[in-house]
C-alpha cells in the first residue's frame, strides 16, 4: 500500500486505485496470518480474493466480515463483507464488498470494490475423489473512488485455475486481465496486470505449508509469501507467515495469527473468529480481526 499525503493545491498527490494496490488488499484474516500465501489453499470465502477457482471446495454457505486499522494510525480503515454459496453442480459463487476509508483532515477518501466470484470444476463428475480435482474461476470487479479532488470508477476481470491433490495443491490467479478506471477528467487508466502462483503441501490433516509468488510486467518476482497453519487442538489454529516485497519500495514483513472454530450445532452452523498481526519495521503494526459464519 502506497500512501501519498496530499498538499493543498496538488490534486494529483493522493491515493489512486491503480498505484495504491487497493484491489490487492487482502480480505482474509486467516490468509493474512499466513503471510497472504493463500492462492493454492482458497478453501473458504477468502478464495473470492485469492483464487475464485478454489470456491468449489466450500461445502457450506459462508458469511465473512473483516476490519483492520491499517498501521494502527486511525487514518486508514479497511472493511470487508462477503457471502459465498457452495456448488450445486452449476458452480460455486460469491459476492463481496471491500472498502478502504481514509480520514486525513480536511480530506476524506473512500474506495469501494464490489466483485462477483465464480468457480467451477473443469470435469465435474460424481466419481471423482474429493481430494483430486481441477477447477477454474473468475472475478468480475467494479470499483468506485471518491475523494475531495476527483471521482473515478472502473472494472476489472481476474481469471484463476486450481488443482487439488491429496497432499499437494497448486493455484494460479491472473489479476486485472482486463481492466479500466475512468476519472472525472475523462482520463482512463488500466490497473497493473499481476500473476500469482501458489503451491501447498499438507503434511497432515492438521497442518500445511504454503508458498506464493507474485509477478507483474514491471517486477519479477514482485513478491514471495511463505505461510503455515497448524491446528494443535480441535477448534484452535496457529498461523505464521513471511512476506518479501521486491518492488521499488522493497519491504519485508512477518505475520502471525490465531483461528478459533466454534461449532454451534448441525442445524445452526459454525462460527469462526480469526486474528492476524502484521509486523512492519517502518510503520506501525496492523491488527486484523474477522468473524465468519458457516451454515
Architecture blueprint of SSEs:
Blueprint: H1 17-20, H2 29-33, H3 47-50, E1 62-69, E2 76-85, E3 92-104, E4 107-121, E5 133-146, E6 151-164, E7 168-183, E8 188-189, E9 194-204, E10 207-216, E11 223-233, E12 236-245, E13 251-265, E14 269-280, E15 286-294
Antiparallel strand pairs: 1-2, 1-15, 2-3, 3-4, 4-5, 5-6, 6-7, 7-8, 7-9, 9-10, 10-11, 11-12, 12-13, 13-14, 14-15
Uncertain segments of ≥5 residues (pLDDT<50)? 1-20
Distance between the termini: 34 Å
**Largest sheet, spatial ordering of strands:** 1-2-3-4-5-6-7-9-10-11-12-13-14-15
Helix/sheet category: mainly beta
- CATH hierarchy class name: Mainly Beta
H/E topology pattern = HHHEEEEEEEEEEEEEEE
- CA radius of gyration: 19 Å
Task: Specify the CATH architecture.
Answer: Beta Barrel
The average pLDDT value, as a whole number, equals: 85
Number of domains: 1
Protein name: PorV/PorQ family protein
Organism: marine sediment metagenome
Structural overview:
This is PorV/PorQ family protein. It comes from marine sediment metagenome. 4% of the residues lie in helices and 58% in strands. The chain has 295 residues and is mainly beta. The chain has one domain (17-294): Porin. The chain has a 14-stranded antiparallel β-barrel.
Short description, anyone?
It comes from marine sediment metagenome. The chain is mainly beta.
Protein traits:
mainly beta; 295 residues; disordered N terminus; 3 helices; Porin
Amino acid at each position: 500500500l502506497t500512501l501519498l499525503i496530499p498538499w493543498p493545491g496538488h490534486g494529483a498527490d493522493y491515493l489512486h486505485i491503480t498505484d495504491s494496490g487497493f484491489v490487492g488488499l487482502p480480505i482474509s484474516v486467516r490468509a493474512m496470518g499466513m503471510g497472504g500465501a493463500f492462492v493454492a489453499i482458497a478453501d473458504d470465502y477468502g478464495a473470492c480474493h485469492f483464487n475464485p477457482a478454489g470456491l468449489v471446495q466450500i461445502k457450506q454457505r459462508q458469511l465473512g466480515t473483516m476490519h483492520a486499522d491499517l498501521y494502527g494510525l486511525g487514518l486508514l480503515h479497511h472493511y470487508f463483507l462477503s457471502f459465498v454459496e457452495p456448488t450445486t453442480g452449476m458452480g460455486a459463487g460469491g459476492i463481496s464488498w471491500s472498502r478502504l476509508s481514509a480520514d486525513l483532515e480536511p480530506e476524506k477518501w473512500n474506495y469501494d470494490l464490489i466483485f462477483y466470484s465464480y468457480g467451477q470444476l473443469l470435469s465435474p463428475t460424481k466419481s471423482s475423489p474429493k481430494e483430486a480435482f481441477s477447477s477454474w474461476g473468475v472475478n468480475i470487479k467494479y470499483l468506485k473512488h471518491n475523494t475531495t479532488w476527483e471521482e473515478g470508477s472502473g472494472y476489472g476481470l481476474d481469471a484463476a485455475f486450481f488443482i487439488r491433490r491429496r497432499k499437494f495443491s497448486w493455484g494460479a490467479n491472473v489479476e486485472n486481465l482486463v481492466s479500466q478506471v475512468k476519472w472525472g477528467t475523462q482520463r482512463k487508466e488500466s490497473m497493473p496486470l499481476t500473476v500469482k502462483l501458489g503451491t501447498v503441501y499438507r503434511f497432515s490433516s492438521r497442518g500445511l505449508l504454503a508458498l506464493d509468488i507474485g509477478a507483474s510486467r514491471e517486477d519479477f518476482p514482485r513478491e514471495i509469501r511463505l505461510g503455515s497453519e497448524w491446528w494443535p487442538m480441535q477448534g484452535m489454529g496457529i498461523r505464521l507467515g513471511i512476506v518479501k516485497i521486491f518492488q521499488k519500495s522493497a519491504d519485508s514483513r512477518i505475520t502471525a495469527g490465531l483461528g478459533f472454530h466454534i461449532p454451534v450445532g448441525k442445524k445452526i452452523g459454525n462460527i469462526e473468529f480469526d486474528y492476524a498481526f502484521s509486523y512492519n519495521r517502518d510503520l506501525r503494526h496492523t491488527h486484523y480481526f474477522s468473524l465468519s459464519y458457516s451454515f
